[in-house]
Amino acid sequence: MVIAGGSCLCACASTCLACITSIIAGNSDKLDGGNNKDDIVKIKLRRLNDRYYHEPQSRLLDKVRLNVVSNIKIVKEATEKESKAEKKVQQKQKKELEQKVTQDLEAGISTTDLKHKYRPVAFLIDFEGDVMLKNMELLRKQVSFIVHTAKPGVDRAIIILTSPGGSVAHYGLAASQLVRIRKANIHLTVCIDTIAASGGFMMASVANEIYAAPFAIVGSIGVVTQIPNFHRFLEKHDVDAYLFTSGKYKRTVDIIGEVTEEGKQKLQEQLDDIHGAFKDHVALSRPKLKESIEDVATGEYWLAVQAKELGLVDQIMTSDELLDHLVKDKQNDVIEIIQKKDKTHMISQFFTSITANLGLFNRFQQQQFQNNTPTPMAIS
C-alpha cells in the first residue's frame, strides 16, 4: 500500500531573504535524506592546522622582501642572540613537559589520555544543508565518529553550519544528531558564516555556544505552508477529481479537494503545534531565551550583530578566526571529518562526463555543417 504523505518545511528563501516553511504534498523522502541504504557513506580525516597557522609560513616574507639590515654586524649578533634564547625556551618547555608526563604516568593516566590532555582535538564538520538534507547519512557518520572517539571534557566539536532550513522532520533529526555530542559531554560550537535560519537555527541552537559572522542571517523561528488548490478550476472545466481518505483529518487542505473552514482551521492548528515544539526546543537548548522566546520566535530573521543583542548568538566571529585561535593559542589539533569518495565511482563519473561532452561537441559540429551561415566570432 502506497500512502501519499506531507512533509512540513522550515525554510529561508535566500532570494528575497524571507524565511519560510512549506508543506510538500507527495511521497516523503526517507528520513536519511534520500540516501540509498546500499550506498555506504565512508569518512576520512584531514588535519587543518597548517591552513590556519603555521609558524614557518610567518617567515616566508623574510625570503622575498629586501632585508637591508641583515648584513650589519650588530644585527647579526642580535639575531644569533635571539636564536639562542629561543632554543633555551624550547628546551625548558620540553623538560617541563617531560616532568609533567612522568608525573601523570606515575599517577596511572593512560598514554591515550595523555595524548588528549596535552594535544586536545577540535573535530570539525563543514555542514551544508538543503531542504531535505540529502547528506544526513554523512552527518550521522561524522557525529558517531566524534561521540566514539573524542575525549569528554577535553576535546571539542565544531560545526560550520550553512542552511536556510527545510523539512521539519529532517532538521529535527539533524538537531537530534548534534544533541548526541552534547550528551557525550563534548563541547559543541556552531559557527555561522553565512546563514542558519529556521531548520538551520534549530540545529545551531543545540550548541554550547554559537559564533557568527557579522552579516550572517540568523533566526526565522517559525513555520509556514503554501498549498495551491485547483478545486474550482477543475470544477469549472467539468473535471472530476477524486480523493479517498481514511481518517477525519487525513487531508485538511490539498491541491484538488474542496477547501473547508474546518480543514483550514485544523491545518493552522497543526502548524501552531509544530511552531510550539520549535519554540520549546530553542528555549530548552538556550535557557537565556526562555523568557524572551515569544519575542524572537516570530518567524523574523536578523543579521548576526542584531541577533547577538537578542541572545540568538553568543559571539561575533568568523569560523576562520575561531579555528586560528584554537590552533595558535589553544594548541589544538583541528581535524576535519569529510566524506571519503570512492575512486571507482569518481573515475566512472569522469568518463561519463567526457562521453557527454563529446556527444555535445559532435552535435555542434553537425549543426555547423548543416548551417551555411558562418558563425560570428564572439568578442569580449
Automatic annotation (TrEMBL):
Residues 182-330 form the Peptidase S49 domain. GO terms for biological process: proteolysis. The keyword Hydrolase applies. It is found in: Cell membrane. SUPFAM superfamilies: ClpP/crotonase. Residues 1-18 form the signal peptide. One of its GO terms (cellular component) is plasma membrane. Residues 38-178 form the Peptidase S49 N-terminal proteobacteria domain. Keywords: Cell membrane, Hydrolase, Membrane, Protease, Serine protease, Signal, Transmembrane, Transmembrane helix. Pfam families: Peptidase_S49 (PF01343), Peptidase_S49_N (PF08496). InterPro entries: ClpP/crotonase-like_dom_sf (IPR029045), Peptidase_S49 (IPR002142), Peptidase_S49_N_proteobac (IPR013703), S49_SppA_C (IPR047272). GO terms for molecular function: serine-type endopeptidase activity. It comes from the Eukaryota. NCBIfam families: PRK11778.1. Belongs to the peptidase S49 family. This is Peptidase S49 domain-containing protein. It comes from Eucampia antarctica. The lineage of its organism: Eukaryota, Sar, Stramenopiles, Ochrophyta, Bacillariophyta.
